Structure formats: C-alpha cells, structure tokens
Amino acid sequence: MSKPSRILFLLWASTLGLAAPVLADGPPPTGAWDFMRKQLYGERDIGIPGDAFMKIEVPESTPDPAATSVNIKLGPEAQGRIKSLRLIIDNNPAPMVATIDFPAGSPINGIETRVRVDRFTSVRAVAETTDGGLEMRSQWVNAAGGCSAPSSAAAGGTLGEMRFRPSADDKALQVSIRHPNHSGFQIDPVSGDPVPPHYITHVRLKAGKSVLLEADLGISISENPLLRISSSQPLAAPLTVEAVDSRQARFSAVWKGPGGDVAAGTGAP
C-alpha cells in the first residue's frame, strides 16, 4: 500500500464511529469524501465536467460486490491533458483504490478495472490535468460485503500469470493477473483466522520503451486484478506489463501483438 493510501486508511478507520448512518433510499454519506478531499487536495477547486471531458460507469446495483466493474472514459476534451487519475470508493475500509499516472500526451482514453465495494457508497474518478486543474465524476453504487468476500478463483494456476485480450482494432487491450489480492478482511473458513493482506501494489505498462501508465493500487482491487486500457490509436507492440505485490514479488509479461506468443515470468519475494 502506498504511503498516501496507508495514511488515509488509518485516518478514515479512526473516524468510523462518527460516520453518518447509510440510508438505502437516500444520498450517500459525504463525510469520508469531505475528509479525503481536504487531505488530498486542500482547498483547491474541483470541477464536475460533462461527458466530453470524462465519465465513470459503474452498475448502480452490482451483481458481484467483490468484482464490480468500473469504467472511466476520457473524452476529447481530456485527450493528452491528464496528468494523474485517482479512483476512490468513499465507504470502503481503504477508500483509495488506485492512483494512475500518465506521461505527457498519453494516448490512453479509457481505463476499466474491477473493484471490491464494501457498502453503499459513491465511486469517484478525480483527474488532475497538466495545467493543475482538478475534475471529478462520481457514481452511486448499492452493494455490500465486497471487501470481506473470500477469494477463490486464484487458488489454482501460477501466481502472477498474465493473460492478454486485444480488441479487433488493436486500440484496446485487457490484461488480467492471477493473484488472490487478499484485502485483509477475509476470514479463513477452516481456521477462522483473518487472512493476511496480499495484493498487487504497483503496475507499469510500457509500449516498446514508452510508458503508457503507472498505477499504485490498494486493497479494493478485486481478486485476479484486471486492467483494460483503450487508446485513441493502435497500441504499439510489444507491450510489457510489470507488477509488484505487497510481499515484493515481481511479475512481468510481454504481449507481442495479435497472434504473437506471450512471454511471461514470475518473481519471488
């Protein structure tokens, strides 16, 4: 967990007893976001742009709170102007889901992933532009229990194994990583003991020698992390994915383009 994520987790957890009750038929509580906003952005103005800049798509009532799809689309007004993007789930135990950094002029115009949602909450995407501006879109989600749901699908196979799925026009690529991504809130069904946190903390994507994005991740990313990127132009192969988990294990794989072999490797702590 990155330093900002650790700080926010500890401070947010300490205020749980003061949190407003969640009402199923009312607006989501704002206390967690108000607190985080001051910690992350101080008194800076945050705009609420239209779809031409950015939008976030999350199911209003998720069928799987342990693997809820979040799709962030960057419109033409945002193309090449995004410096960083934060994904925040207000009422999760660790609200900071991801901090994604982009190089100048990045062609990325969409990011999709899967997250754990612990209870009724707002899911927010906050973008910082290259000129220092802040823009935010949010979506209300009705869910419960995602952070404590047991992992299962990652039990087989090789830890860190990666799979690639390109789009037909090569402008989008989905990367999945086999990993339990334990949040630290699950209970071992045999022993009854808490399962220690073990999750992917950092991902870097490179097209050739150029970095497409780097992301610091928290415990709210779902089991078997998935990242789908879309671009305004065909993605250049080879594309390298490098990942690090909370035990300092390192994983990497190379996508060599449509029809090409995938070269993959895993590393030990």
Concise summary:
By secondary structure, the chain is mainly beta. The protein has helices spanning 3-14, 31-41; strands at residues 54-57, 68-74, 82-89, 96-101, 108-115, 121-129, 134-141, 162-166, 172-177, 200-207, 210-217, 226-231, 239-245, 250-255, 262-266. Strand 10 and strand 11 (210-217) form a beta hairpin.
What does this structure look like?
Helices cover 9% and strands 38% of the residues. It is globular and about 50 Å long. The two termini are 16 Å apart. The strands form two sheets. It has a nine-stranded antiparallel beta sheet, with helices on one face. It has a six-stranded antiparallel beta sheet with strand order 1-2-5-12-9-8, with no helix packed on it. The protein has helices at residues 3-14, 31-41; strands at 54-57, 68-74, 82-89, 96-101, 108-115, 121-129, 134-141, 162-166, 172-177, 200-207, 210-217, 226-231, 239-245, 250-255, 262-266. The model is unreliable at 1-29 (pLDDT under 50). A hairpin with a 4-residue loop joins β6 and β7 (134-141). It has a single domain, classed as SoxY domain (Immunoglobulin-like), CATH 2.60.40. The protein contains two helices and 15 strands. The protein is mainly beta and 269 residues long. The longest helix is centred in the N-terminal third of the chain and has 12 residues, at 3-14.
Notable characteristics:
269 residues; mainly beta; Immunoglobulin-like; nine-stranded antiparallel sheet; disordered N terminus
